[in-house]
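Collaborator request log, item 7. Partner lab (contact: R.S.) asked for a structural prediction of LysR family transcriptional regulator to inform their binding assays.
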Amino acid sequence: MSLFANTPPLLEFDLLRSFVAIAESGSFTRAAEQVFRSPAAVSMQIKRLEETLGKSLFLREARQVRLTAEGEVLLSYSRRLLRLNEEAVSQFVTPAIEGTVCFGSPEDIATGVLPRVLAQFARSHPAVAVNVIAGTSTELLSRLDAGELDMALLTAGNVGQDPTRGEVVFTEPLIWASRSGGVAAEKTPLPLAVASRGCCWRTMALEALDKQGIDYRIAYTCDHSAGMQAAMEADLAIAPLPQSHMRAPFVQIDANLGLPEIGEYQLLFEHRKELGPAGNALARYIVDAWKTPR
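Returned to partner:
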């Protein structure tokens, strides 16, 4: 009996590449243009992929295609597999990419998820130096336009920010957070720790409270997440935070306390037109990292 009789089938990277292109464009025709194949050939690729997995991956509608639940799961795996393949191949057959990239990020992102993403990039591109500058989204856009940055992550919806700038790479709910075991959420008026005027998280949180008629006061104002977290840890206030930023000793406030849903915020990616090899490599990595569910 062969040792490989029960080995699962291998997923072909060409099929996964076409699958991701369809999922992101919502169209077999547009995906075919991206992977330089005919729509019929791409359709056959997806048929092979569905036969290999024994699952339907797309819901085909009149003007677009949507992922099935199984397709959503495969999309996450496909992006990771394609990125790992690119990293592995680049170590052997791709000329070494060298250079320096100036990257901007909001402070909350720069001290949270971003370091892990940049550490992974550094392992696959050791000759690229990435200089990170943290600031508000409006400041980062100004520095980008002044040529001080090559690219930046931005939060959408800040006061004074051009709404046409940036590609949406990540969307996430904002939630009400407090110290575990704290009582700040039970006080009236409700004490809040928020950033200064103009911050989209602050605006979304206050609008939600105003809409529901909940009395509140700004107990702590700080543009740095460390300051807001200090106020929360001391049980002086609660704060609106992205769901992925939750860490002990903080917890999401129980819905039974009647606080309104805040809504979702968007993370944008913007870059200057001419990036060069090092900048292009980082840009692809950043976009893929945030578009892949974590």
